[in-house]
Write a structure and sequence with these properties.
By secondary structure, the chain is an alpha/beta fold. Helices cover 24% and strands 24% of the residues. The protein contains 13 helices and 27 strands. The protein is globular and about 80 Å long. It starts with 18 loop residues before the first strand and ends with a strand.
């Protein structure tokens, strides 16, 4: 059963003055998934009585706002929500150090719910410590800084890492290990300290058929997990789904069957941003059928550019030469129109129906380069339905079907490989790890409870925690050291004020709990200024 507190709590520090804590800054939300962030704090006292502390942040993500089901009612009008890191970071120009300065940030992968807070922090004027990330994650972080209008000289030091070369931060050793995910070069971390060991696998699945990878390596992981694991932080996103997971190879088999059945059709395939493994599966099948692969959508073009810059090309990974073209110019539009339908596969953005993305514009007949034809096109959704975005997706599906298009989704065939482990994979990973205690993370209350229930049945002790909680980790057990903080995190919200161009933005910042919001009005956006750096407006005056 879940065990939050020991019957007799040990002292705050051991006889050597050592302690290890994990702070839940975000990710263990009530209703939504996002803002994933955890802080590892190790303290020890030397022979001279001096205290030394290492503070290592693991991920710093964004939680997307949802007016219908807001995670925090005070931030209901915000489109982006992040944990409040003000006590850990120093603002440029300030003389005083922060109360609890960070030493480093470790990133598991490149999705915005794990790194999206960093550009906001830079925009707010904070000095960020060094960041450890795999090369692809590092490149995507650089793109996020650039997209936010942050000049390279303002970026933090970004250090490339890979499994096999541990990072030593004082007495804390951090070893990365590969995990399969929907995006390349995702890793988990094995955190070793004299007081105890923590495993944080990040977002993962055990799919060995991913194209970019590297895929989860059981042998590599078991070598790390052979050491004692005092606390396992386990992703809960798929804990309520006791099903056999769909692999990327399953998706490829489905696509092969469709192309065999419809050799003369043109396939329009919607893939979500950040799901590069889905892109690679589509590309692999397109290469097998000697079809030209077209890419339409800024986010897909950015990810492919980052992959190329880090030495990864589609042709190398799919095992066959593949022609990849961007559908972004009048010439490319003419070339596509001149091709036979059966010679093309087009990957597009807009799987969730977001306005301005490729597929919704093509569905409405307003995209300048992609003209759909119900006689020749099959529209395929290799993408999930995202909570909070169902209505826009369903509207787009209705429009396409009303116009007579053949539209296929996950309900029709295995067209989407889940990004996160399902319950059988979570159980398998927990057994491989054999932790003394397990804490469900990365999920709403329902998902984390399902995770804990499954682990309890295996005889694995679990501890529950909410945002704001602080967990003490020892070799004898784990417990909450500050129960009053549970469920009372500090968050900041940002409301985007869009100008005439995508990069013409201001942000209105709101603190939770919110006070006197109507007392301040943000300045109007200056739409004539090109590539203007977004500004932060604090609407919670002191």
């Amino acid at each position: 059963m879940a065990d939050n507190y020991m019957n007799t709590l040990p002292p705050d520090k051991d006889d050597n003055g050592r302690s290890l804590h994990w702070h839940l800054l975000g990710g263990n939300n009530k209703h939504r998934i996002g803002a994933n962030s955890g802080l590892c704090v190790y303290e020890e006292t030397d022979s001279m009585g001096d205290k030394h502390t290492k503070r290592l942040l693991f991920d710093a993500g964004v939680l997307l706002g949802d007016r219908r089901y807001p995670e925090y009612p005070e931030l209901a009008d915000c489109d982006s929500i992040i944990p409040d890191y003000s006590r850990f970071l120093k603002k440029k120009g300030e003389a005083a150090d922060p109360a609890e300065p960070l030493d480093a940030i470790f990133l598991t992968h490149n999705h915005v719910d794990h790194l999206g807070a960093l550009p906001f922090l830079a925009l707010m004027g904070y000095e960020l410590p060094k960041v450890y990330a795999t090369p692809y994650t590092a490149k995507r972080l650089e793109q996020e800084f650039t997209n936010a209008g942050i000049e390279p000289e303002e970026w933090p030091e970004i250090i490339s890492i890979a499994p096999g070369t541990p990072v030593q931060e004082g007495p804390v050793k951090v070893s990365a290990f590969w995990v399969s995910h929907s995006t390349p070069q995702a890793v988990g971390f094995f955190i070793e300290t004299p007081e105890g060991n923590i495993v944080n696998p990040g977002d993962f699945k055990l799919d060995p058929t991913v194209v970019w990878g590297p895929a989860f390596n059981e042998e590599q992981y078991k070598k790390l997990a052979a050491r004692e694991v005092d606390l396992l932080l386990l992703d809960s996103t798929g804990a309520d789904r006791d099903i056999i997971p769909t692999t990327e190879e399953d998706v490829r088999e489905t696509l092969r069957g469709l192309m065999d059945k419809h050799p003369g059709k043109r396939f329009i395939i919607a893939v979500m941003s950040g799901f590069e493994e889905n892109v690679a599966s589509v590309a692999k099948v397109a290469s097998e059928y000697d079809r030209t692969l077209w890419i339409s959508g800024w986010s897909h073009e950015q990810s492919l550019s980052a992959l190329k810059e880090t030495g990864m090309t589609l042709s190398d990974h799919v095992g066959k030469e593949l022609e990849v073209r961007s559908l972004g110019s009048p010439k490319s539009a003419r070339d596509l129109a001149d091709m036979k339908p059966g010679d093309s596969v087009i990957i597009v953005t807009g799987a969730a129906g977001a306005p301005g993305s490729t597929l919704p514009r093509a569905a409405d007949g307003t995209h300048p380069a992609l003209k759909l034809d119900k006689k020749t096109d099959i529209i395929v959704f290799c993408a999930p339905s995202i909570p909070g975005q169902e209505s826009s997706r369903e509207r787009m599906l209705s429009v396409l079907r009303a116009k007579g298009f053949e539209v296929l989704t996950r309900k029709d065939a295995e067209l989407y490989s889940q990004a996160h482990a399902r319950l059988p994979e979570l159980i398998e990973f927990a057994k491989m790890t054999n932790p003394k205690m397990l804490m469900p993370i990365h999920g709403d209350e329902h998902l984390r409870a399902a995770n804990a229930e499954a682990m309890d049945k295996l005889g694995i002790k679990t501890i529950s925690a909410d945002n704001g909680d602080v967990i003490r980790i020892t070799k004898k057990g784990c417990w909450s050291v500050n129960p009053e903080s549970k469920g009372k995190p500090k968050f900041l919200g940002f409301k985007t004020l869009q100008g005439s161009a995508w990069n013409d933005r201001n942000y209105m910042m709101i603190k939770a709990p919110q006070e006197k919001r109507a007392d301040m009005t943000p300045e109007p956006a200056n739409n004539n200024q090109k590539n203007k750096r977004p500004k932060i407006f604090n609407v919670n005056p002191k």
